[in-house]
């Protein structure tokens, strides 16, 4: 466990080097647009966000934001705010004040491709910290969301490797994920892009898939589909995940290892994931 914590510390510290040496800033164009979109969601709400036409993007044509983004992170932040309001009353006691769910927030506009997961997550973390009376600007949340989720990814990779073989395999998998360039490049501080959260969701989806195959449990199959659903709201690379699951099932058939567990797991995941 100590080695795992040290690995997570290395992963986090290596990704915030630019902040330590210089300052906390958002890098490149897409991350800065995602930051602007998160601010718009917090200030205007999800309805205005879905119908927002940004004349400053894709100039001079402009951009219809509701139909061209993956707003999973944006709406995750908004969801956190809604949950916080459910438990807050004036005297500071935290109880269930109301159980009103905004169903219309889950209905897609007919021109909307996907909700953007990245901005939702950032908004959620911002509101959650404010709920804890920790005042943090939303920009800082956007800057550090990549390193934070890289730590979560390390934990899932450890569980993944441990599930496949043993603790040593899990620690080796976590250590490789902590320093692999492909993951590090997309989750450094200031890289507020879709991959900063999607990598974690992708690895988590594969872990749940292996759990579903091994146990034949409907619960793990549903969790796998749910995590995949979250990833599809965050990153366009979700198509590769579902195709890899299908390819894995196909090779299990060729290898003569197809069983009722595989049938149950793939049927549930495929049906729910394509729902």
Automatic annotation (TrEMBL):
It is found in: Endomembrane system. One of its GO terms (cellular component) is endomembrane system. Residues 2-73, 117-273 form the Oligosaccharyl transferase STT3 N-terminal domain. It comes from Dracunculus medinensis (Guinea worm). It catalyses: a di-trans,poly-cis-dolichyl diphosphooligosaccharide + L-asparaginyl-[protein] = N(4)-(oligosaccharide-(1->4)-N-acetyl-beta-D-glucosaminyl-(1->4)-N-acetyl-beta-D-glucosaminyl)-L-asparaginyl-[protein] + a di-trans,poly-cis-dolichyl diphosphate + H(+). It is a multi-pass membrane protein. It is an enzyme of class 2 (transferase). Pathway: Protein modification; protein glycosylation. The keyword Magnesium applies. GO terms for molecular function: dolichyl-diphosphooligosaccharide-protein glycotransferase activity; metal ion binding. InterPro entries: Oligo_trans_STT3 (IPR003674), STT3_N (IPR048307). Belongs to the STT3 family. Its cofactor is Mn(2+); Mg(2+). Residues 1-18 form the signal peptide. Keywords: Glycosyltransferase, Magnesium, Manganese, Membrane, Metal-binding, Signal, Transferase, Transmembrane, Transmembrane helix. The chain crosses the membrane at residues 106-129, 141-160, 172-192, 199-229, 235-255. This is dolichyl-diphosphooligosaccharide--protein glycotransferase. The keyword Calcium does not apply. The lineage of its organism: Eukaryota, Metazoa, Ecdysozoa, Nematoda, Chromadorea.
């Amino acid at each position: 466990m100590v080695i795992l914590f040290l690995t997570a510390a290395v992963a986090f510290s290596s990704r915030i080097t630019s902040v330590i040496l210089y300052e906390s800033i958002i890098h490149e164009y897409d991350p800065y647009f995602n930051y602007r979109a998160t601010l718009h969601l917090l200030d205007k709400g999800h309805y205005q966000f879905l119908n927002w036409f940004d004349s400053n993007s894709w100039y001079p044509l402009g951009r219809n934001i509701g139909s061209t983004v993956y707003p999973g992170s944006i709406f995750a932040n908004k969801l956190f705010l809604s949950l916080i309001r459910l438990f807050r009353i004036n005297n500071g006691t935290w109880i269930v004040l109301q159980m009103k769910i905004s169903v219309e927030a889950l209905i897609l506009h007919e021109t909307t491709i996907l909700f953007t997961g990245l901005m939702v997550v950032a908004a959620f973390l911002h509101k959650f910290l404010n709920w804890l009376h920790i005042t943090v600007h939303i920009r800082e949340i956007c800057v550090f969301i990549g390193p934070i989720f890289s730590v979560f990814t390390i934990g899932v990779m450890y569980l993944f490797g441990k599930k496949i073989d043993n603790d040593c395999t899990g620690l080796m998998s976590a250590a490789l994920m902590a320093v692999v360039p492909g993951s590090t490049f997309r989750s450094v501080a200031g890289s507020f892009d879709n991959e900063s959260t999607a990598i974690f969701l992708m690895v988590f989806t594969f872990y749940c898939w292996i759990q579903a195959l091994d146990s034949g449990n409907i619960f793990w199959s549903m969790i796998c589909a749910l995590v995949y659903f979250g990833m599809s709201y965050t990153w366009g690379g979700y198509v590769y995940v579902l195709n890899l699951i299908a390819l894995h099932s196909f090779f299990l058939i060729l290898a003569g290892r197809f069983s009722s567990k595989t049938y149950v797991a793939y049927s549930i995941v495929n049906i729910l994931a394509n729902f």
